[in-house]
């Protein structure tokens, strides 16, 4: 029972996330406005300059996120509402962390090998499938994609050392 | 009716067992291309082009070749809806608006219904557009010539106004979302001045933010993360797999005839202009939501919300071939590759194609009718098959979807950094959804921001800074007025209500 | 003298290469691609460079000129900078080629994005693209003089010249034209040449400097009219395009009293650091492409200048063209600050 309780506990409140996102978007708006200011924000004879629209877009983002920030700060009622519970966050991380590893691997060992590993890892770890089912499926999917993209449609995808070794790149 | 006679001659050319076979092959290939975000119609067409060179040398072969290629195009149009409905991942840009109601329908276990509605609407949209091409082609080509920068701007304005205010939630978050979309659209080279904007010296930012990458991340990856909170399964796995679902849905569809009609009109207009299929689908969704009785239920899984964008997207996608034939200006990358094909076969697109290559043009138009019918038959028979994909266990299908998304993101610019970007968008989509930031305005702003800004600034250069150019003739003035009317429609509607009530 | 030295150096490099091969015991066969060749187009799909690349791809496939497949990839971001940087970063990779247009010079000069043609290996010039001054067919102007006179009479910024992009070839020609004639156009930048010509056909702009291939469809359809060609001599193609005119009937701008010349490079480059044999493979391949009837038909339809240089001649041409662009853009104030 105690375990259930811990997974129901909030990992972050709506307010905390709301405030963080508002700050991040504010920063984004500020960067946009700043760079646009650099390239010119006036309205000349030939209409608006390159920075005109982005500058005001940046300002609107800053202004609106300030409003959201202040509102979230004031809203007492919502302050304890949970954004995501620990259990939920754990589930999301189960997908997100392997996905991050996967996309990083794509850049290093190519998309086919990393896809095989990624699908295989998921089936073994989350799906609790045996090796006997996992390996053929994971390899099969990658081979199918290889045939589809590289052979039939001639679309080159990222490849790594294994493909080079096999002379497939 | 000279057109009818020519058309029947066209049918005579198009209907041979060999050509019919080509149609089915083309449609099947097209569906595969449409389903995978990594492959666009342009890939399929490009890959088959060399094959068609040999075909084009036999008598009547040019027609066969173009039938094969255009059927891939139809197939891809149909296929884009499948992943939108099943997994919230738009296979093609124009199926983004289909996710708004298609995916909620699938979650309710009504995937079969949503797919049938989508396919049937696609067919109707395309059919109306082909009829228009058949009878009004030359007149419409001249209409397209009326569109200069101010007219384009007013069309984009109209799209925004038709769509704005449709999202629920806090108005200020809608604004933030839309502005972020505009900001992302501004990254890269500014066409009007040739200056680099918001690239901060990073070469990866030169190419800007592509719409498809944002959409795959925000909608596709974001949705998977959101689903995971509830456990390791997709909702709506108990979708009916009975082929009868097609007939049942058909019984329901005639109810939405007005929506279909409006959507076809919007689509044909946007295709000829050429504003494109993607804006057409958004505009049509916005208009349907505004004028439907059940407008406030849109986004929760309404069949009508699938009918509107799909009909418009296909009407636009089909009628976009018209400027290609008559003006030689391709309306889409796929059309551009088709255009390349025409050139290699020795055909010169342009105003004279209808006169000089009569057989070819009418063969093409006839193949549009037949290809569409072939497409509908193929995809409808496969509805239960598509819906069955949802039954694949989550721990297998989830990583496969992610792989497909990664391939899709990579192929847009053949760049690995886009794959990282896709994941960043995914996390952003997850957080924004949970905080009630609407995503649709962001996506629309990303699609149209750049084009709207360009046409606005071109207009300003032309008028030397005079805003009156946006009302300078009946066409642009009418469009701008209509846009403003739509923008203020909610206020007007409540005013009218109050006057009537008082 | 210097050429002799260069030749000698190259000859010795070749013999060393041959020696290396002999020592390794490999067959003394010419180099061939061992995997898919990426054909990069630093422009959007449907434009002039894209059409040419797809034609080359089509011809290579049709005549099976290469064992390995070829794939055309558009990388148009940042006025082509995306494509050029991609090839620049692939130093030593013999499986990438890129087709260039004038943005090889204009993009780095106008935006300051760090690349230069010297980062690449020149392979072969395919052709030179012409520029023509076009007006709408409904206007009364029959010659360039009449039009320029009308522009002068209307006053500065009254007549609109449409073109592709900003600070690129179309605007460079416009600026040169203004300097020559003392006129001032309002330059309206669009995304692509096809769009520019459609805008002209729809009378949204008063003139354009489209390439022949971008304007030919509307010319034949009676919607636009060519006034003069920006080259030192007339086009060579004598077949009638419209009922009364062929390409060769269009006077040069110089004849019309507007002494402006501009030709655009349509050439192929490879990444830097590739070997001579690798480059020579593509030189030979493109030579075979240029010998096909499809290519010749395309040249005629687009009224191209069929100058095709390779080797040092090509290199010198490119170096000279770079200097010309530098001067023109400096005068126009287009250089990146």
What does this 3D model show about the protein?
The complex is a heterotrimer of chains A (169), B (502) and C (337). Chain A has 169 residues and is mainly alpha-helical. Chain A has two domains: 79 residues; 79 residues, no CATH class. Helices cover 73% and strands 7% of the residues of chain A. Chain A is flat, with a radius of gyration of 24 Å. The termini of chain A are far apart. Chain B has 502 residues and is mainly α. Helix content of chain B is 74%, strand content 1%. Chain B is built from 22 helices and two strands. In chain B, strands 1-2 form a two-stranded antiparallel ribbon. The longest helix of chain B is centred in the first third of the chain and has 35 residues. Chain B starts with a helix and ends with a helix. The mean pLDDT of chain B is 85. By secondary structure, chain C is of the alpha/beta class. Chain C is built from eleven helices and ten strands. In chain C, α4 crosses α11. The N terminus of chain C is likely disordered. Classes of the chains: A mainly alpha (169), B mainly alpha (502), C alpha/beta (337). Chains in contact: A-B, A-C, B-C. Chains A and B meet through α2, β2, β3, α3 and α4 of A and α3, α8, α9, α19 and α20 of B.
Task: Name a few traits of the molecule.
heterotrimer, A: 169 residues, mainly alpha, 2 domains, two-stranded antiparallel ribbon, 7% strand, flat, C: 337 residues, alpha/beta, D-Maltodextrin-Binding Protein, domain 2, 5-stranded mixed sheet, 10 strands, 43% helix, disordered N terminus
């Amino acid at each position: 029972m105690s375990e259930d309780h811990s997974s129901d506990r909030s990992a972050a409140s709506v307010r905390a996330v709301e405030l963080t996102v508002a700050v991040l978007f504010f920063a984004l708006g500020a960067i946009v406005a700043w760079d646009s200011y650099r390239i010119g924000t006036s309205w000349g004879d030939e209409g608006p300059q390159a920075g005109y629209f982005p500058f005001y877009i940046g300002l609107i983002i800053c202004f609106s996120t300030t409003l959201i920030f202040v509102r979230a700060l004031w809203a007492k009622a919502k302050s304890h509402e949970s954004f995501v519970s620990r259990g939920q966050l754990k589930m999301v991380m189960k997908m997100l962390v392997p996905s991050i590893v996967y996309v990083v691997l794509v850049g290093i060992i190519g998309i086919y090998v990393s896809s095989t590993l990624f699908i295989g890892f998921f089936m073994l770890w989350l799906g609790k499938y045996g090796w006997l089912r996992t390996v053929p499926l994971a390899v099969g999917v990658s081979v199918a994609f290889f045939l589809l993209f590289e052979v039939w449609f001639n679309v080159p995808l990222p490849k790594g050392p294994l493909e080079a070794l096999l002379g497939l790149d | 009716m000279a057109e009818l006679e020519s058309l029947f001659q066209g049918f005579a050319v198009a209907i041979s067992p060999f050509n019919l076979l080509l149609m089915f092959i083309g449609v099947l290939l097209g569906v595969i291309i449409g389903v995978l975000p990594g492959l666009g119609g342009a890939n399929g067409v490009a890959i088959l082009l060399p094959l068609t060179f040999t075909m084009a040398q036999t008598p009547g072969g040019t027609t066969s070749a173009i039938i094969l290629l255009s059927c891939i195009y139809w197939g891809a149009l149909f296929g884009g809806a499948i992943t939108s409905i099943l997994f919230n991942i738009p296979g093609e840009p124009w199926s983004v608006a289909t996710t708004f109601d298609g995916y909620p329908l699938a979650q309710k276990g009504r995937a079969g219904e949503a797919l049938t509605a989508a396919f049937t609407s696609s067919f109707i949209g395309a059919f109306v557009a082909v009829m228009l091409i058949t009878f009004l082609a030359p007149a419409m080509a001249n209409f397209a010539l009326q569109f200069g920068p101010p007219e384009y701007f007013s069309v984009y304005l109209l799209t925004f106004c038709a769509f704005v205010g449709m999202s629920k939630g806090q108005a200020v978050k809608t604004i933030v979302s839309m502005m972020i979309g505009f900001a992302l659209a501004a990254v890269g080279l500014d066409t009007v001045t040739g200056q680099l904007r918001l690239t901060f010296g990073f070469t990866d930012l030169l190419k800007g933010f592509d719409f498809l990458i944002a959409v795959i991340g925000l909608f596709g990856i974001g949705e998977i993360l959101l689903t995971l909170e509830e456990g390791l399964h997709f909702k709506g796995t108990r979708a009916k797999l009975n082929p009868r679902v097609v007939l049942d849905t058909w019984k329901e569809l005639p109810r939405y005839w007005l929506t279909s009609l409006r959507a076809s009109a919007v689509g044909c207009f946007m295709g000829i202009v050429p504003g494109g299929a993607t804006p057409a689908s958004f505009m049509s969704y916005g208009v349907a939501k505004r004028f439907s009785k059940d407008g406030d239920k849109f986004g929760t899984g309404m069949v009508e919300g699938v009918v509107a964008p799909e009909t418009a997207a296909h009407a636009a996608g089909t009628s976009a071939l018209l400027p290609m034939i008559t003006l030689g200006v391709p309306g889409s990358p796929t059309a551009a590759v088709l255009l390349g094909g025409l050139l290699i076969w020795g055909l010169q697109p342009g105003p004279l194609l209808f006169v000089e290559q009569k057989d070819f043009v009418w063969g093409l138009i006839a193949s549009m009718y037949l290809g569409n019918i072939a497409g509908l038959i193929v995809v409808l028979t496969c509805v239960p098959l598509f819906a069955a994909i949802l039954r694949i266990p989550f721990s297998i299908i989830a990583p496969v979807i992610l792989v497909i998304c990664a391939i899709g993101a990579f192929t847009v610019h053949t760049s690995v950094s886009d794959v990282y970007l896709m994941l960043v968008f995914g996390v952003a989509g997850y957080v924004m959804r949970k905080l009630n930031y609407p995503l649709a305005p962001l996506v629309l702003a990303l699609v149209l921001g750049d084009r709207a800004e360009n046409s606005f600034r071109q207009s300003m250069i032309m008028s030397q800074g005079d805003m009156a150019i946006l009302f300078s003739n009946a066409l642009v003035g009418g469009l701008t007025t209509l846009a403003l009317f739509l923008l203020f429609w909610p206020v007007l509607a409540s005013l009218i209500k109050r006057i009537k009530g008082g | 003298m210097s050429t002799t030295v260069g030749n000698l150096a190259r000859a010795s490099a070749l013999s060393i290469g041959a020696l290396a091969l002999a020592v390794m015991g490999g067959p003394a066969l010419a180099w061939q691609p061992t995997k898919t060749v990426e054909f990069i187009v630093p422009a959007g799909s449907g434009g002039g460079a894209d059409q040419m690349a797809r034609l080359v791809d089509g011809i290579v496939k049709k005549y099976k000129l290469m064992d390995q497949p070829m794939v055309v990839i558009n990388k148009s971001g940042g006025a082509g900078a995306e494509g050029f940087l991609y090839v620049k970063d692939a130093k030593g990779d013999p499986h990438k080629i890129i087709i260039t247009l004038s943005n090889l010079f204009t993009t780095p000069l106008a935006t300051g994005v760090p690349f230069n043609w010297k980062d690449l290996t020149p392979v072969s010039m395919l052709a030179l693209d012409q520029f023509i001054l076009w007006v709408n067919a409904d206007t009364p102007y029959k010659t360039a003089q009449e039009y320029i006179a009308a522009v002068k009479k209307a006053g500065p910024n009254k007549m609109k010249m449409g073109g592709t992009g900003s600070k690129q070839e179309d605007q460079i020609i416009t600026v040169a034209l203004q300097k020559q004639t003392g006129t001032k156009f309002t330059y309206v930048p669009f995304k692509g040449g096809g769009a520019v010509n459609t805008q002209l056909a729809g009378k949204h702009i008063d003139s354009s400097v489209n390439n022949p291939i971008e304007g030919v469809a509307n010319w034949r359809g009676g919607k636009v009219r060519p006034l003069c060609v920006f080259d030192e001599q007339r086009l060579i193609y004598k077949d009638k395009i419209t009922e009364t005119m062929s390409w060769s009937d269009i006077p040069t701008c110089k004849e019309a009293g507007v002494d402006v010349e501009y030709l655009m490079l349509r050439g192929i480059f490879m990444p830097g650091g590739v070997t001579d044999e690798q480059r020579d493979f593509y030189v030979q391949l493109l030579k075979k492409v240029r010998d096909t009837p499809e290519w010749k038909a395309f040249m005629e339809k687009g009224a191209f200048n069929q100058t095709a240089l390779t080797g040092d001649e090509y290199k010198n041409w490119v170096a000279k063209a770079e200097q010309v662009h530098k001067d023109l853009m400096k005068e126009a104030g287009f250089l990146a600050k």
